[in-house]
Amino acid sequence: MSSSQAAAGVAPIRSMTGYARVRKTAGDTEIVMSVKSVNHRALDLHFHCPAELDPIENDMRALVRRSLTRGHVEVRVSLAREASTASLTLNRSLLRAYLDAFQQAAAEHGLKAEPDLNSAFRIPGMFGDSGADLPTGVQAAVLEALAEALEVLNQTREREARDTVRLLLAHNAAIQNTASALEQIRARAFPLFEARLTDRLRDLLRGQSVDPQRLAQEVAMLVDRSDVSEEISRLHIHAVQLAALLNGGGEVGKKLDFLLQEMNRETNTILSKTNGIGEAGLKITELALSAKADIEKIREQSLNLE
Question: Residue 257: which of 36, 37, 45, 39 has the closest Cα?
């Protein structure tokens, strides 16, 4: 976020890629919280937490939604109790269900096999804390740890986005310079194109009676079909809008995508219109292709912006 944006109270631009890890202690419980985000078109949340945190998962989701708007986000939480206070109990009903299912499957298929307790003990939920609820304050501490992790995550995402925005602005400045160069060439080339087209049509129609006014109209129509002044003007306007969007901050990813589609459409039209107008047309084609390359570079990088 630039200093001018901060002074104006504008939300920063953020990358969708980042990682944060926070450790916090609540009583005899150590909390390790990690949050990872990568590119995604929407906000796609995935939680990997102990079952004890099920009661506050909705609160955790609400916290994430207040901090992030797009991205594939993974939240991982681990809780570790001190050995002196932790007491595990065997889930006897789950173990009995496992043994019964094992013996039934062996009997049905005529297998001679004995169940493996080591395998049974690795079944999720086979062991649990003897307490039904988390110790007092742990749930609140988990939410605090998540809030801290999200703050760190957004700081890293903002730093990455600043570098990306600088690169995008450089490519966009190149597009604006290209648009100016295109207009200069067009202004010089199209009067010459019009004169050359008039001479060519006169040669083709030599010996035939043609109304000079009709000839002028036909030439003007053909020149107008090849004129790219409107496309160049719109390309320049879109580039100005893109710069304002990047300098304005906030959530820009989807808006950038729309602008880049429009800019790409203008360059494609320029390329389709300037075939057959000689050396100037070749130069216009070269510049339009350069603009397309910069547009594509912006598009690739902008996919990572929220």
Answer: 39
> Is the CB of residue 78 less than 8 Å from the CB of residue 53?
no
Residue range 209-223, pLDDT digits in tens:
555 565 455 545 555
- Tokens representing 139? 């749930």
Distance between CA atoms of residues 161 and 9, nearest Å: 17
Q: What is the mean pLDDT of the chain?
A: 83
Q: 183 or 6, which is more confident? A: 183
Q: Which residue would you say has higher pLDDT here, 120 or 141?
A: 141
Alpha helices by DSSP H, listed for 71-137, are 92-108, 117-121
In the structure encoding, which two tokens stand for residue 91, read together? Answer: 């889930």
Q: What are the backbone dihedrals phi and psi of residue 207, each rounded to the nearest 5 degrees, phi first?
A: 90, -5
Q: Of all helices (H) and strands (E), which one includes residue 49?
A: none
Which backbone phi and psi does 75 adopt, to 5 degrees? -110, 120
